[in-house]
Write a structure and sequence with these properties.
- The protein is mostly helical and about 290 residues long.
- It contains 11 helices and 2 strands, in the order H-H-H-H-E-E-H-H-H-H-H-H-H.
- A hairpin with a 4-residue loop joins strand 1 and strand 2.
């Protein structure tokens, strides 16, 4: 294949990675931005989304689109409910202390992982894509489902942006983010806001997992890479910044797609680490973050 078509293929693969990464990192960034909690278990919510997607998709026989749609609706809801229970049983009892919650979410990571191993098993299992046809480009054919992942991710991110910036729910979340005590004094139920934000962050990770699982398979160990890449994205983009999260995810996703195709996946991860180091040295608050006062 000539260089031009090869580059186009790498860019398309990078956009798919960027779309899934942006959704996953958005959940992590949202939880930190509002609750000031570094959720180390975020990758396990991604893994649970994929595992439940497999489980729900196998409940429906016949057209794979029906099973996938069922998984796309129910898997994020179940993962969000699990996050709600975890928030109430663990994080709320720790009064959302930043240091204690890091240790607690590390514990949650191992608990979710071992429960998945116990009930789901060690095998990686495939989830059929809802449709399977290729779009014919001048040089090659490309999976229409992969392009649908990009479109679906953009729609979810736009919906999240609308809720955060144009609704009363978003206003309450931003008020809680800026000053928890003042928001509480004005009658805002801060604990309920925190619970909703934690569940929403987990649901965004689960949606990303359901979208990508038809081309990656569901595995109980699949939460590690999304967690590390999400941390890289939110550090580069700026913790709590929606715009920064999207820009950094596109940057990391395209870099990974292009470098991995032309050179090696290891070099792509080295470059991502280099980006993080440069940002921490020259702009510690991230590309679009604000300096704490």
């Amino acid at each position: 294949m000539a260089f031009g078509p090869h580059l186009l293929l790498a860019v398309l693969e990078g956009l798919v990675s960027s779309a899934v990464l942006a959704l996953t990192a958005l959940g992590l960034s949202l939880v930190f931005g509002v609750m000031r909690i570094v959720n180390v278990a975020h990758g396990e919510f991604f893994m649970l989304g994929a595992v439940f997607a497999w489980w729900f998709s196998t409940m429906v026989a016949g057209d794979p689109a029906l099973g996938f749609l069922l998984a796309l609706v129910l898997a994020p809801l179940v993962v969000g409910a699990i996050a709600l229970v975890a928030e109430r049983l663990v994080l709320r009892r720790l009064n959302y202390d930043p240091e204690a919650t890091i240790v607690a979410t590390i514990g949650m990571l191992y608990i979710f992982e071992q429960l998945a191993l116990m009930f789901y098993g060690p095998e990686a299992r495939a989830v059929p894509a809802p449709f399977d046809f290729r779009i014919t480009l001048p040089w090659f054919g490309y999976s229409a489902y992969k392009l649908a992942i990009v479109a679906a991710s953009i729609l979810v991110m736009l919906a999240t942006w609308f809720v955060l910036t144009r609704t009363k729910i978003g206003l309450v979340m931003r008020a809680t983010q800026y000053d928890r005590e003042t928001a509480q004094a004005f009658g805002i139920p801060v604990d309920r806001v925190y619970a909703g934000v934690f569940a929403l962050g987990a649901m965004l990770a689960a949606i990303a997992a359901v979208l990508i699982v038809p081309i990656q398979q569901a595995d109980y160990l699949m939460g590690t890479d999304p967690l590390l890449l999400s941390f890289i994205v939110v550090i580069i983009g700026g913790l709590g910044s929606l715009r920064g999260t999207v820009v950094a995810a596109v940057l990391i996703g395209l870099t990974e797609g292009i470098v991995a195709v032309f050179f090696s996946p290891t070099l792509a991860k080295m470059l991502a680490t280099l980006f993080v180091a440069l940002v921490l040295v020259f702009r510690p608050q991230g590309l679009f973050g604000t300096t704490a006062r």
